[in-house]
């Protein structure tokens, strides 16, 4: 049996990864991988030799094999978690929870199989020495392949579940957006159309009273006012129809819709919403996409960020329009998977579908800013 130093050196030098030959892994990462495997193997062998100075001749070869595997798994996982935590600034416990090991049942069964194989290999090694390695090469590769397939199956299941949740969220957003459009159109009808039509109705009542009372001279004076009111109502209706054709979010376009949305949301939350909204020129599709993204980003900031302030800024450049939604909340790690982040891919897809780009800037404790750029 090999000493701890020999075991560490053999494991480090013998650790091979196909990505190294394809030049997909950098030198620093390759050295770290080999080093952590060597250190883990050294400590596993040291633990076994500490319990049994001559493990190959021990009657407790099987428990010693499981001890070596447990130390190897714990040290390897710990070193990898520590490296990722330092390199990316993530909490150590979060990194450890996200290690890719397949399902726990498959991982446990694989360790059990490797423990049995390791004990058998150690016993056979005493008889035929290095030839025992070739006898156990195929079963070892088979268990490794089984663990790899388990991880791929788990990744596929998670991706499917995430896509399903994203589709459900998209359906909910579409339902909300249709409701938003109806409210905006209703507001436009109330503000722009109701008053001229009311004036037509009022003047018609006046003319009716003139006719009943036989006041023909007054009818001559009131009739032009009725005609003017009818023409004004007709013009307002035509203008509104034109605005609705030019923009799917009501008369006044994106800028006016954003102002109304900020005003409505401000009344529903203690968070202070600051707005700086300029008049912009965009296609109907781009206006609708920007409105939908703004609604999602502001809603996320209000619900999830624990912010005190949210800023909404819409500006026009020489060749593009810029929408920025920022907050001073707790922020988050954009790389980390979270149920609260499903809206981000949807916002990116909306921006891309309208020919724009979405950028996300956030970090734990530093708030969040969503920036959308659309060509004008």
What's the mean pLDDT score? 76
Give the helices and strands as they follow along the chain: HHHHHHHHHHEHEEHEE
Shape: rod-shaped
In which order are the strands of the major sheet placed?
Answer: 1-2-3-5-4
Main beta-sheet annotation: 5 strands, mixed
Distance between the termini: 73 Å
Given as residue ranges, the uncertain stretches (5+ residues, pLDDT < 50) are: none
Put simply, the count of helices is: 12
Q: Kindly state the percentage of residues in helix.
A: 55-70%
Number of strands: 5
- Count of all domains: 3
Report the C-alpha radius of gyration, rounded.
35 Å
* Oligomeric state of the chains present here: single chain
The amount of beta strand, in percent, is 5-15%
Structural class: alpha+beta
């Amino acid at each position: 049996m090999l000493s701890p130093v020999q075991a560490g050196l053999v494991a480090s030098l013998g650790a091979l990864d196909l990505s190294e030959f394809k030049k997909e892994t950098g030198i620093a990462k390759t050295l770290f991988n080999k080093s952590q495997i060597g250190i883990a193997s050294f400590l596993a062998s040291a633990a076994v030799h500490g319990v049994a100075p001559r493990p190959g001749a021990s009657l407790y070869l099987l428990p010693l094999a499981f001890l070596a595997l447990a130390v190897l798994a714990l040290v390897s996982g710990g070193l990898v978690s520590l490296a990722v935590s330092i390199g990316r600034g993530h909490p150590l416990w979060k990194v450890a929870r996200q290690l890719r090991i397949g399902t726990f049942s498959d991982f446990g069964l694989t360790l059990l199989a490797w423990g049995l194989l390791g004990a058998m290999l150690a016993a056979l090694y005493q008889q035929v020495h290095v030839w025992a390695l070739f006898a156990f090469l195929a079963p070892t590769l088979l268990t490794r392949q089984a663990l790899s397939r388990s991880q791929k199956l788990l990744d596929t299941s998670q991706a499917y579940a995430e896509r399903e949740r994203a589709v459900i969220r998209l359906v909910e957003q579409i339902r909300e957006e249709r409701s938003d459009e109806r409210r905006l159109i209703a507001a436009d009808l109330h503000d722009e159309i109701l008053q001229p039509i009311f004036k037509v109705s009022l003047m018609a009542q006046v003319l009716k009273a003139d006719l009943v009372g036989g006041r023909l001279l007054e009818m001559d004076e009131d009739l032009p006012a009725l005609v003017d009111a009818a023409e004004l109502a007709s013009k307002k209706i035509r203008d509104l129809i034109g605005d609705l054709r030019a923009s799917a979010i009501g008369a006044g376009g994106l800028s006016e819709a954003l102002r109304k949305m900020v005003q409505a949301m401000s009344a529903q939350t203690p968070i202070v919403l600051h707005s700086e909204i300029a008049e912009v020129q965009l296609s109907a599709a781009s206006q609708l996409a920007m409105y939908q993204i703004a609604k999602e980003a502001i809603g996320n900031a209000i619900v999830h960020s624990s912010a005190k302030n949210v800023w909404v800024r819409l500006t026009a450049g020489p060749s593009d329009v810029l929408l920025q939604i920022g907050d001073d909340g707790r922020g988050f790690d954009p790389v980390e998977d979270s149920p609260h982040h499903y809206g981000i891919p949807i916002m990116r897809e909306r921006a891309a579908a309208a020919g724009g780009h979405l950028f996300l800037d956030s970090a734990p404790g530093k708030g969040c800013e969503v920036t959308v750029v659309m060509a004008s």
